[in-house]
Amino acid sequence: MIRIGILGDIGSGKSFVAKSFGYPVFNADDEVEKLYKKDKKIFLKLKKALPKNISTFPISKNEVIKAILDNNNLKKIIKIVHPEIRKKLIQFTKKNKNKSIIVLDIPLLLENKINKKKDILIFIQSEKKNILKRLKKRKNYNKKLLDKFRKIQLPLVYKKQKSKFILKNNFTQKSLKQGINKILNKIV
Q1: What is the DSSP letter of 154?
Q2: Rounded CA separation 48/107 (Å)
Q3: What is the pLDDT at residue 2?
Q4: Alpha carbons 174 and 180: distance in angstroms, whole number
Q5: Phi then psi for 109, rounded to 5 degrees?
Q6: Sheet of 2-8: strands edge to edge?
Q7: C-alpha angle 84-109-121 in degrees, rounded to nearest 5
Q8: How far apart are the C-alpha atoms of 145 and 61, rounded to whole Å?
Q9: CA 177 to CA 44: how far, in whole Å?
Q10: pLDDT at 143 over 80
Q11: 173 class by beta-carbon count within 10 Å (0-12 exposed, 13-18 middle, 19+ buried)
Q12: Domain-by-domain residue ranges, the chain?
């Protein structure tokens, strides 16, 4: 099985690109959201670690945002949530073991050392102005929150260097599909 890891800036279109490959996608953000909505154990751990911020189940996105903006809570959240995400990734990999390719849409893929040596890393390059435009359209856009997330990420230059392919995303399906097909032709 070939594992494709998608890298890039927040708002560069990683999830859009991951889905466009046409193979099973492990989307860590979706999995985290499911944990907040359905996993009582995660709720209890977060409530214990962050009693001022987390109080209701299912955990609302607003509670998480407020917790992250409070001091060093992001690290506490990561410490609780990420081991569960690793378990979910293992389950996903086992479930899709007969697939020729899986796509990993995991924002902290390199930072949390989730990638494997044989993974094919693809860096999604988008223009800063397009990224900012897209981010501002998001329902929970918050510059301070964005800055907190960027601080825990490796520099984009490093991610680009680690990538086998660079895929330009100008947010049009046609050019994206062409780039994806070129990559798939080289790796399959």
Answers
A1: P
A2: 26
A3: 97
A4: 10
A5: -55, -50
A6: 25-27, 101-105, 2-8, 120-125, 165-168
A7: 140
A8: 12
A9: 43
A10: yes
A11: exposed
A12: 1-24+99-188, 33-95
* Position 87, amino acid: K
**pLDDT tens readout for residues 2-20:** 999 999 999 999 999 999 9
Average pLDDT in the 152-163 region? 94
Going by pLDDT thresholds of 50, 70 and 90, the confidence category of residue 164 is very high
**Both structure tokens of 34:** 């499911």
Q: Mean pLDDT, the chain, as a whole number?
A: 93
Query: Does the domain formed by 1-24+99-188 have CATH 3.30.413.10?
Result: no
**Joined tokens for residue 122:** 């693809």
DSSP state of 187: H
Burial of 159 from C-beta contacts in 10 A (0-12 / 13-18 / 19+) = buried
The model scores a pTM over 0.85: yes
